[in-house]
Amino acid sequence: MKTKEEIFTDLKNILIDRQNIDESKIKENTNLKKDLDLDSLDVFELIDVVEDKYDIEIDTDTDQGIDTVGGLTEYIYKVIAEKQ
């Protein structure tokens, strides 16, 4: 199972590669929309990539605290753990 640090690194790499975001801007408390200027489509695409990468489903209809990079990391970690 991946560690939270590995998941965070994966997310950071996805944001750098797909959204062309400067690595120095990506911290645990970085807000995806406010700090990284991602719009709803960008966030949807990020979620889609994450779902494919980890073979999980992320319920975006509920407020899971996935508005920050750290929150999304925690959520992914939790979902992967529940699948074990």
TrEMBL record:
Keywords (A to Z) from UniProt: Cytoplasm, Fatty acid biosynthesis, Fatty acid metabolism, Lipid biosynthesis, Lipid metabolism, Phosphopantetheine, Phosphoprotein
A GO-annotated cellular component: membrane
One annotated GO molecular function: acyl carrier activity
Classification via Pfam families: PP-binding
Modifications after synthesis and translation: 4'-phosphopantetheine is transferred from CoA to a specific serine of apo-ACP by AcpS. This modification is essential for activity because fatty acids are bound in thioester linkage to the sulfhydryl of the prosthetic group.
Gene3D superfamilies, sorted: ACP-like
Pathway assigned in UniProt: Lipid metabolism; fatty acid biosynthesis
Modified residues (O-(pantetheine 4'-phosphoryl)serine): 40
Signal peptide region: none
HAMAP family: Acyl_carrier (MF_01217)
Entry's family note: Belongs to the acyl carrier protein (ACP) family.
Protein name: Acyl carrier protein
Protein's organism: Companilactobacillus nuruki
Gene: acpP
